[in-house]
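Private note to self, pasted from the team thread so I don't lose it. Backbone tokens:
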């Protein structure tokens, strides 16, 4: 324990002395007989054998990772757990990987927190959450899969809760604490949320379940977090899916960007209910009455276009949020799976990324959520290029040189005039993804496509276009944001989908801004300061390392201007492992 604390403290100091630190830490750890898996440096050179490994996104040194589990801030340390297969790059042997950080960007991998070795979880320690109890002690609630593949809920406690690293976890002798109730499909009863406490002093958690043909977020109550009673009605259910995975339920403030503790109730508050299904994370916003546990939303997921609210309109699933009491913000994590084949995963030796953690809050209008990468990420910004006002005539592009285009953070703002020349969009409510696909990056319009060409090869045969189009509608204007992966890779077998979202922004009054985080095989884009987010995974063959280029482009007929562009090379995050070597299962 003392040893690990020493390592962490030395990590904290060393994090500030970039370059020397990984080496120093590795030496310390090797001396202590622990396997060290520090990542190779991606700053300037391409890693030929691992071109898709990221430089600043969270990943284990190898193997499969999926859902974020139980993120929490505890005794000055951020903890992140995740669904992990310790034995290979494909899904299986579900365990809880565990890593710690002081800043949500640089991480130290600790030993695995939960492994599937008890009758109630022998087929997997599935997703779950952490709640801090009134004693100050954290508790994990997670789904175990038994020998019949039935899903049960279980608890685990830290072996020593005075250890800020929460290095060892002990499963409760009471497990399983919940078995599938009558009417719930025993194969579909999983992913308990973080607990919140009502005014009656009782805990609540919501669990994803299949009841007949409906996906339900069923609500349980408990006085002591150990013995739970199902309430008579679900917190929320949906006819759009027969199963909800990874439900998340939390309050957001009506005014301001600060987050709220999950148990906070009051007037100027809305509650978010998020569920994962059909490969996406949907949410609704409503009013929660804690007295009778009524959650009044009035709509189902995807009820109409306006209510088809998603955290991210790209590749993003099974997300989970937590309240960061230190910085008074709510933070969202999400799994970003691969768009490559299983054999691609086997040859890479790993699968799955996590997004950069995002702060999340309610928009000024109160009708959607807004997300933005945590401020700490900016510490990795290094070499910078800046352009002030620059004209971007129709059909032109500008090369953004001077930064590492494969590992970058780019902020660009476009300013448009003469909007009367915008194309007319006949139907006001259309599916943005279909619209982006019909009007892809190579199809010239009036205002748009304009945006960034990222991870572009020297000959431009490979590139991912992150772009906008502005349309005139009967009443106003519509701004479309797209990520076109159709030319992201010369490899035919990888995903080439085109993603799309509408931006709730009136281009008559506001400039159109874009922030894009580029990290070798992941591109996270935030339109209009986080009003719409689209995450993509791409697998270029040519546009790797120093052979990746970045452009601003305008493929429309109308001229516009870049009112500002700031782009930075990103340093590599320090993500270091102290994990002990594991023996194979058989
Ligand atoms: N992943 C977990 C489940 C969850 C699913 C298993 C969502 O608990 O429902 O790895 O990706």
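Design output:
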């Amino acid at each position: 324990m003392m040893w690990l604390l020493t390592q962490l403290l030395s990590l904290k100091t060393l994090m500030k002395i970039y370059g020397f630190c990984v080496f120093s830490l590795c030496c310390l750890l090797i001396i202590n007989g622990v396997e060290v898996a520090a990542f190779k440096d991606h700053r300037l050179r391409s890693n030929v054998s691992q071109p898709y490994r990221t430089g600043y996104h969270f990943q284990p040194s190898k193997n499969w990772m999926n859902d974020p589990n139980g993120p929490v801030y505890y005794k000055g340390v951020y903890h992140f757990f995740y669904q992990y297969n310790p034995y290979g790059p494909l899904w299986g042997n579900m365990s809880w990987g565990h890593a710690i950080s002081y800043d949500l960007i640089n991480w130290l991998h600790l030993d695995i927190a939960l492994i599937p070795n008890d009758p109630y979880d022998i087929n997997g320690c599935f997703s779950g959450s952490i709640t801090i109890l009134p004693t100050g002690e954290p508790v994990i609630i997670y789904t175990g899969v038994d020998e019949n593949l039935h899903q049960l809920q279980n608890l685990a406690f830290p072996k020593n809760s005075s250890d800020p690293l929460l290095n060892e976890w002990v499963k409760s002798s009471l497990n399983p604490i919940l078995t599938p109730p009558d009417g719930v499909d025993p194969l579909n009863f999983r992913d308990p949320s973080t607990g919140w406490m009502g005014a009656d002093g009782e805990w609540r958690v919501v669990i994803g379940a299949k009841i007949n043909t409906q996906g339900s977020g069923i609500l349980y109550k408990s006085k002591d977090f150990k013995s739970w009673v199902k309430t008579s009605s679900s917190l929320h259910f949906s006819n759009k899916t027969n199963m909800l995975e990874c439900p998340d339920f939390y309050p957001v403030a009506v005014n301001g960007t600060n987050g709220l503790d999950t148990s906070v109730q009051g007037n100027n508050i809305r509650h978010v209910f998020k569920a994962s299904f059909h490969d996406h994370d949907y949410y609704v916003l409503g009013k929660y009455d804690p007295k009778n546990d009524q959650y009044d939303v009035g709509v189902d997921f995807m009820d109409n276009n306006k209510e088809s609210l998603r955290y991210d309109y790209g590749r993003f699933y099974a997300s989970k949020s937590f309240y960061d009491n230190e910085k008074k913000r709510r933070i969202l994590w999400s799994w970003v799976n691969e768009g490559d084949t299983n054999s691609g995963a086997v040859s890479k030796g790993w699968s799955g990324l996590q997004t950069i953690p995002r702060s999340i809050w309610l928009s000024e209008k109160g009708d959607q959520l807004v997300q933005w990468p945590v401020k700490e990420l900016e510490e990795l910004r290094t070499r910078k290029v800046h352009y002030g006002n620059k004209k971007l005539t129709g059909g032109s592009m500008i090369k953004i040189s001077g930064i590492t285009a494969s590992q970058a953070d780019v902020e660009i703002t476009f300013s448009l005039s003469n909007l009367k020349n915008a194309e007319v969009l006949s139907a006001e409510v259309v599916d943005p993804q279909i619209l982006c696909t019909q009007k892809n990056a190579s199809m010239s319009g009036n205002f748009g496509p304009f945006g960034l060409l990222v991870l572009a090869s020297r000959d431009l045969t490979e590139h991912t276009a992150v772009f906008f189009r502005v349309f005139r509608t009967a009443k106003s204007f519509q701004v479309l944001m797209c990520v076109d992966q159709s030319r992201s890779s010369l490899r035919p077998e990888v995903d080439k989908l085109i993603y799309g979202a509408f931006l709730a922004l009136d281009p008559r009054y506001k400039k159109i801004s874009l922030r894009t985080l580029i990290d070798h095989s992941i591109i996270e884009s935030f339109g209009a300061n986080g009003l719409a987010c689209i995450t993509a995974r791409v697998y270029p063959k040519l546009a790797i390392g120093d052979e990746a280029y970045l452009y601003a482009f305008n493929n429309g007929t109308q001229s516009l201007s870049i009112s500002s562009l700031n782009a930075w090379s990103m340093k590599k995050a320090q993500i270091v492992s102290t994990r002990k070597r594991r023996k194979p299962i058989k």
